[in-house]
Amino acid sequence: MNLTELGGEVARARKEKRLSQTDLARAAGLSRQSISSLERGAISDLGAQKLIRVLEVLDLELLVRPLGHPITLDDLRPKAR
């Protein structure tokens, strides 16, 4: 997933939760401009901590796996919370 795709997923999840960019920014402790730039894939330096806060507000998580690793059924299965 590249930065543009990530931004698109953030925008999709935000709209699904019926949050404005301002609402998401406030909840994550960022500026609305940062959220807008992230959603457009145009942010140059957000930082992992800030990205994780945005994802948490949207009930998303960041998954890291080896490059080229094929997606498995375990990757798609929701984890028990």
| Helix/strand/pairing category | mainly alpha
CATH C-level? Mainly Alpha
Q: Kindly, what is the distance between the CA atoms of the first and last residues, rounded to a whole number of angstroms?
A: 25 Å
**What's the pLDDT, averaged over the residues?**
90
Give the C-alpha Rg: 13 Å
Overall CATH architecture:
Orthogonal Bundle
Spans with pLDDT under 50 lasting ≥5 residues? none
The biggest sheet, with number of strands, parallel, antiparallel or mixed sense and barrel status, is: none
Percent range for β-strand residues:
under 5%
The CATH topology comes to 434 Repressor (Amino-terminal Domain)
- Individual helix count: 5
Shape: globular
Series of secondary-structure elements, N-terminal to C-terminal: HHHHH
- The count of strands amounts to 0
Helix coverage percent of residues? 55-70%
Number of domains: 1
Describe what this molecule looks like in 3D.
The chain is mostly helical. The chain has a single domain (1-81), classed as 434 Repressor (Amino-terminal Domain) (Orthogonal Bundle), CATH 1.10.260.40. It contains five helices and no strands. The chain has helices spanning 3-16, 21-28, 32-40, 48-57, 73-76. The longest helix has 14 residues, at 3-16. It is globular, with a radius of gyration of 13 Å. The mean pLDDT is 90.
